[in-house]
Design a protein that fits this description.
The chain has three helices and four strands, in the order E-H-E-E-E-H-H. The chain has 105 residues and is α+β, with helices and mostly antiparallel strands. The chain starts with a strand and ends with a helix.
């Protein structure tokens, strides 16, 4: 398996900011689920990186898999196993979670 980076938006904004933020959409929970599942699967070639804003705030929690240049939106802890098993290990992005090009603009 090629090395991968999993970038998870942890951006936090003021509660009154109209864009919202991934942190308030449970990014820490998603991050922790990725961390525990990576450890459980012994995926040493994968690095988990909390980031600032990845852009599509309305579609958070946003996750990017690099170097594949795939961006996922509305990721929940329940989606982590599918992302790891289907995409990171299996090489097939999870279509139902992929952000549209419009969301990334």
């Amino acid at each position: 398996m090629k090395p991968k980076l999993i970038l998870i938006c942890h951006n936090q904004r003021d509660a009154d900011d109209p864009k919202g933020c991934c942190h308030d959409k449970h990014a820490p929970l998603v991050y922790e689920k990725f961390r525990s599942e990576l450890e459980k699967r012994n995926l040493a070639m994968v690095r988990l990186v909390p980031t600032g804003c990845l852009g599509p705030c309305a579609d958070g929690v946003c996750v990017s898999i690099q170097p594949d240049d795939v961006y996922y939106g509305k990721v929940r802890a329940i989606d982590v196993a599918a992302i790891l098993d289907e995409h990171v290990v299996g090489g097939r992005p999870v279509q139902r979670l992929i952000l549209s090009d419009e969301a990334l603009d």
